[in-house]
Design the sequence.
């Protein structure tokens, strides 16, 4: 048992705490470990995929910040394959992880692994994506995902001239043809993003300013399994054939993620919409401030993205991990919104920003997230 090792390291005080903690589900089972040296503690970090830059940045930031705090880190990527991620987490537990930080692929697929973690008193922090249908998740660090959706929709309204950058009505009344895309249905975040976006767009759909020409407005109709660029490109191509072949034009596309945005833009460019917004491309939104998309925004091709500073999320994950390993509860700033189907998971939410061409400098370059050279090149150094 984990707690026994901690007791051995932690002396009499730890003995008392460990005896009380029992190491049960959701108890933050490392409570006896207050006196263990960080270097004796291993933190398993499970990330979904390396095909999207944001997760590489997250993995790097979490690993380096944990190592700076003295912990040993076991960082694994699962190539977006659910069984691979389950196996990686099993191995982390077998190898003696003291705490797990998990960005899940399918938020409902890890119940067995997390039961094993709970049985051994290993605290689990859900990273960015909520883990669902289990009581064995102790804390959740993420962004205000509903607000990300609001921001995506707001930027679409700004791009179409319906709102100004301050969010005031700017005069355009359309009607504008738009299409909607959502993320992967097995990712809890996809639902929050889409809900926030639709709550923002619905009044303009209701009053006729916006027209979803395909009629596809349900998340099940517009979702993109695994958030894949190619899947989004294919759906956009199909929409252009099915709905716009008669000469109607697409004016705007709600896209929940930069990879999806690039697939949409490629389909539109191939269909003759031009190479830039000025030349006829619709307003396309995004998320993550991936470098390839930041360049497209800088070049007037993609209209916007949402910047979620992964360095800050990593920092929050590290602070929360430290709290558990010190036998404390991490500080939550939201204890209402993230019901995982079994319980409301105490959460720490961070804020995000809308990126347009004119604030790339202040949001992304001045903060050191990307350099000017990277933005110009469209790739990370
Ligand atoms: C994350 C987004 C990301 C998406 C695709 C979501 O869970 O919150 O930032 O764009 O996954 O990787």
Sequence:
């Amino acid at each position: 048992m984990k707690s026994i090792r901690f007791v051995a390291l932690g002396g009499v005080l730890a003995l008392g705490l460990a005896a009380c903690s029992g190491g049960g589900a959701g108890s933050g089972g490392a409570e006896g470990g207050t006196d263990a040296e960080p270097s004796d503690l291993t933190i398993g970090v499970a990330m979904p995929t390396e095909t999207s830059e944001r997760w590489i940045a997250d993995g790097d930031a979490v690993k380096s910040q944990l190592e700076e705090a003295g912990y040993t880190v076991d960082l694994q990527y699962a190539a977006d394959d659910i069984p691979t991620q389950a196996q990686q987490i099993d191995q982390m537990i077998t190898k003696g992880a003291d705490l797990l930080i998990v960005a899940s692929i399918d938020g409902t697929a890890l119940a067995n692994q997390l039961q094993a973690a709970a049985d051994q008193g290993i605290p689990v922090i859900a990273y960015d994506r909520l883990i669902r249908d289990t009581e064995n998740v102790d804390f959740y660090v993420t962004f205000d995902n509903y607000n990300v959706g609001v921001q995506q929709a707001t930027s679409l309204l700004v791009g179409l001239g319906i709102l100004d950058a301050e969010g005031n009505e700017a005069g355009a009344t359309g009607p504008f043809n738009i299409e909607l895309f959502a993320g992967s249905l097995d990712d809890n975040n996809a639902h929050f993003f889409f809900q926030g976006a639709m709550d923002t767009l619905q009044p303009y759909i209701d009053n006729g300013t916006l027209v979803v020409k395909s009629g596809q407005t349900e998340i099940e109709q517009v979702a993109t399994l695994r958030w894949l660029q190619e899947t989004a490109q294919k759906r956009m191509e199909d929409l252009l054939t099915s709905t716009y072949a008669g000469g109607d034009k697409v004016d705007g596309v709600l896209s929940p993620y930069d990879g999806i945005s690039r697939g949409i833009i490629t389909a539109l460019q191939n269909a003759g919409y031009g190479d830039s917004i000025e030349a006829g491309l619709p307003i396309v939104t995004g998320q993550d401030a991936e470098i390839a998309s930041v360049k497209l925004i800088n070049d007037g091709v993609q209209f916007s993205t949402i910047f979620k500073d992964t360095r800050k999320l990593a920092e929050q994950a590290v602070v929360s991990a430290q709290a558990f390993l010190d036998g404390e509860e991490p500080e939550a700033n939201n204890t209402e919104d993230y019901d995982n189907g079994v319980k409301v998971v105490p959460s720490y939410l961070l804020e995000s920003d809308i990126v347009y061409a004119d604030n790339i400098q202040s949001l992304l370059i001045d903060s050191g997230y990307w350099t000017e050279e990277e933005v110009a090149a469209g790739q990370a150094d």
Notes: Residues 52, 54, 128-129, 183, 187, 189, 227, 257, 287-288, 308 surround beta-D-glucopyranose (CB under 6 Å).
